[in-house]
């Protein structure tokens, strides 16, 4: 039996637990510092066993996943280095920053255990075990940050276990990871939060701001609802990279100010054209890049029953819809329906079916 201990059974820890639980030969132990959380993990069937004792979980484990906020990772690695771990035990984490925890892992004597940093490039603005899903990592990249001291057989064992997530496992240097992920994940979170707070200020004086906020605002700001403590830790941990990225961001904003002040319409057009070209050639529909699910948009007239009709049509043909959202709907104006699917085949079938019924479908 291979025992997996998960510390911090929240969105990411819970999703990993669900990927492993019930698989032949795997036994999943969840750990929380709170007794009430431990009960919840077992009641929800996310883990096979749960405990508030760190030693009980860690010392039984062949694999240890640290899924707590970035600011707590190093204290966990240090605590583990004082325990009687199984020889060959692999300790990994899921933190959104990698350089500091990787350095901590390689600087400590782990008594026969091996530390390999990790980061699944998939997530959500939601948090807690309630938001966990066994599908979260499917098709996403899952970064591992081995270094020259990592035994190849340990890397192979961890990679083999992570096949249960259905993610694509890639090895990346820890510092390079923090620079790239700072740009494509941490900076966008800062921008989304700053934008929402700017509009929040206007809304405080005039509530029409919130009422009129439509698809564009919602699309760019979903991640502003992310868990504050998790993101406080990520941003502070990646401060050096982010300060440099924010300087570049200020320059991008200054260019827009200049283009507007001097009516440079051709430059504005060029900025949109270049951005569109780059975004459109990104690997679409791969989780963790742009789309977290397989999605399409359907223009629908705003009349009663239309949504039911679409859902029924998909259900009739056994197309598995994972989410449905009305982006905008006003009387006499076509609304936009966002349909989300977990599988490419479901999306393809939905596009075919709705297209045949005469609905304009976009990606
Ligand atoms: N949210 C994402 O999209 C995402 C994606 C990839 C990786 N991550 C990383 O995953 C880790 C967990 O994030 P999450 O989104 O699952 O958050 P979460 O809030 O859903 O889960 C965090 C878990 O850690 C526990 N925890 C919180 N503070 C703690 C403390 N001081 N000591 C011990 N346990 C504590 C919580 O009880 C919870 O079980 C973070 O390191 C984050 O950087 C997050
Ligand atoms: O989809 C989201 O909500 C996410 O924030 C996921 C996201 C990202 O920025 O892409 C966030 C943090 C991670 O560490 C990895 C992925």
UniProtKB/TrEMBL annotation:
One of its GO terms (molecular function) is NAD+ binding. SUPFAM superfamilies: 6-phosphogluconate dehydrogenase C-terminal domain-like, ACT-like, NAD(P)-binding Rossmann-fold domains. Keywords: Amino-acid biosynthesis, Aromatic amino acid biosynthesis, NAD, Oxidoreductase, Tyrosine biosynthesis. Residues 295-363 form the ACT domain. GO terms for biological process: tyrosine biosynthetic process. InterPro entries: 6-PGluconate_DH-like_C_sf, ACT-like_dom_sf, ACT_dom, NAD(P)-bd_dom_sf, PDH_C, PDH_N, Preph/Arog_dehydrog, Prephen_DH. Its EC number is 1.3.1.12. Coiled coil: none annotated. Residues 2-290 form the Prephenate/arogenate dehydrogenase domain. Pathway: Amino-acid biosynthesis; L-tyrosine biosynthesis; (4-hydroxyphenyl)pyruvate from prephenate (NAD(+) route): step 1/1. It comes from the Bacteria. It catalyses: prephenate + NAD(+) = 3-(4-hydroxyphenyl)pyruvate + CO2 + NADH. It is an enzyme of class 1 (oxidoreductase). The keyword ATP-binding does not apply. The keyword Mitochondrion does not apply. NCBIfam families: PRK06545.1-5 (NF005107). PANTHER family: PREPHENATE DEHYDROGENASE, PREPHENATE DEHYDROGENASE [NADP(+)]. Belongs to the prephenate/arogenate dehydrogenase family. This is Prephenate dehydrogenase. It comes from Paenibacillus abyssi. The lineage of its organism: Bacteria, Bacillati, Bacillota, Bacilli, Bacillales. The gene is tyrA.
């Amino acid at each position: 039996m291979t025992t997996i201990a998960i510390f911090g059974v929240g969105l990411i820890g819970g999703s990993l637990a669900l990927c492993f639980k019930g698989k032949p030969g795997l036994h999943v132990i969840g750990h929380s510092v709170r007794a009430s959380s431990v009960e919840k993990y077992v009641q929800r069937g996310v883990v096979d066993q749960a405990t508030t004792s760190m030693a009980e979980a860690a010392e039984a484990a062949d694999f240890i996943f640290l899924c707590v906020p970035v600011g707590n990772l190093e204290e966990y690695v240090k605590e583990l280095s004082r325990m009687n771990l199984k020889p060959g035990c692999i300790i990994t984490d899921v933190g959104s920053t990698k350089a500091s925890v990787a350095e901590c892992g390689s600087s400590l004597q782990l008594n026969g255990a091996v530390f390999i940093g990790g980061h699944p490039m998939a997530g959500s603005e939601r948090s807690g075990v309630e938001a966990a899903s066994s599908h979260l990592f499917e098709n996403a990249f899952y970064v591992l940050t081995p270094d020259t001291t990592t035994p190849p057989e340990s890397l192979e064992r961890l990679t083999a276990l992570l096949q249960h997530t259905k993610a694509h496992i890639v090895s990346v240097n820890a510092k390079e990871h923090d620079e790239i992920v700072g740009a494509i994940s941490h900076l966008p979170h800062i921008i989304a939060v700053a934008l929402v707070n700017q509009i929040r200020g206007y809304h405080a004086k005039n509530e029409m701001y919130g009422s009129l906020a439509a698809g564009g605002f919602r699309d760019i700001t979903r991640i502003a609802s992310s868990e504050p403590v998790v993101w406080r830790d990520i941003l502070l941990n990646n401060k050096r990279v982010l300060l440099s990225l924010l300087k570049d961001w200020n320059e991008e904003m200054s260019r827009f100010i200049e283009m507007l002040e001097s009516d440079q319409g051709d430059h504005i057009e060029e900025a949109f054209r270049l951005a569109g070209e780059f975004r459109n050639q990104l690997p679409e529909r791969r989780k963790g890049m742009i789309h977290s699910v397989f999605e399409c948009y359907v223009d629908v007239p705003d009349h009663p029953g239309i949504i039911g009709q679409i859902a029924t049509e998909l259900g009739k043909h056994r197309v598995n819809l994972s989410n449905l959202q009305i982006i905008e709907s006003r009387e006499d104006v076509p609304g936009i329906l966002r349909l989300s699917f977990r599988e490419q085949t479901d999306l393809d079938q939905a596009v075919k079916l709705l297209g045949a019924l005469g609905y304009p479908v976009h990606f």
